[in-house]
Amino acid sequence: MLAEAIDDISPAVRANAACNDLQGSLTGVFFSEELQDIAAAKALCATCPVILDCLEGAIDRHEPWGVWGGQMFLNGKILATKRRRGRPPKTPRPEDQLPDIPVPVHLQGYLRSA
Ligand code: SF4
To answer: Does 49 have pLDDT greater than 80?
Structure first.
């Protein structure tokens, strides 16, 4: 898990987190601006047994940044989409395809449009 960023996270979530390698080596991936990193972080979240707890905790803490619970955060809100800077390519890059992880219905009020 993102050890240096998550002192407020419950021990149960921390212990079962798919991103918890005890060294924080994935921090750069979960707090990257690069779409391929964000895609990799979201893909790992999709396998995580504590994804809902993580997402709810990130909302409670008003996380300012990063991927939490399978979603991108900005200033405490869930970003629905993100795209690369500049003109979009004519053919989408496969590495830029973000995994679609639905936001649970009871948390959709925290979605923010780009
Ligand atoms: S949902 Fe993602 S950010 Fe949250 S603990 Fe699991 S892998 Fe880490």
So the answer is: yes
**Which domain, by its residues, includes 80?**
3-112
Task: Count how many domains the chain has.
Answer: 1
| 84-108 tens-digit pLDDT | 677 777 787 776 788 899 999 999 9
> pLDDT tens, 50-63?
999 999 999 999 99
CA of 35 to the centre of ligand 1 (A): 17
Q: Kindly write down the DSSP assignment for every residue of the chain, as one continuous string.
A: --GGG-TTS-HHHHHH-TT--SS-TTHHHHT-S-HHHHHHHHHHHHT-TTHHHHHHHHHHTT--EEEETTEEEETTEEES----SSSPPSS--GGG-----PPPGGGGGGEE--
| Ligand 1 contacts CB of residue 5 (under 6 A) | no
